[in-house]
Fold this sequence. Notes:
This protein has 7 helices and 7 strands. By secondary structure, it is an alpha/beta fold. The strands form 2 sheets. It has a 5-stranded parallel sheet with strand order 2-1-3-4-5, sandwiched between helices. The termini are far apart.
Amino acid sequence: RRLCVLLAGSAPAPALAAMIGEAVAAFDMTVVGRDDLRTRDPAGRVLYERLLDAELVVCDLSPGDPEDFYLLGVCWALRPSATLVVAEQRDVESGPPSLRGRSLRYLSPHDGKRGAGYGQFVRRMQGIVEQADAGYLGSPVYAQSRLAAPRLVHDEGARQPTPAAAGGPAPTARCARPP
């Protein structure tokens, strides 16, 4: 089975995990939470490997856990796609402006009931994953491989150290755009 990693605070709501699990079951994916991966490897290596290997990463920003925001940044920087941000309906408008319109909202599933919001979330998430909707799954900050890496060059007008000034200040350097 393929892997879906759920980043949802230190104790994701079982009902949220159930909604996500039901949505991705149609794609033969298994949901694994961040804490499940940490239990196996306290150093975190397994977590980072799974973030990169996963078919889908779902990050719930509702709990406001700083580690989830950090891991979302890691996913966005290293993965070109397949990272979905979700947030409880009440939390969407209070989040960063860059996430508005890029996150899938859900009604609080904490009561465990399968109400209209539950089914609506499952269907919408399935549609996003099935269509590979870049508006939701694409990374806004992924490092494009076609860009050349910055390189360090010496300023032409900078003083160059002389043998007499050994140990003195090094010439100033700046980042330059590749030719």
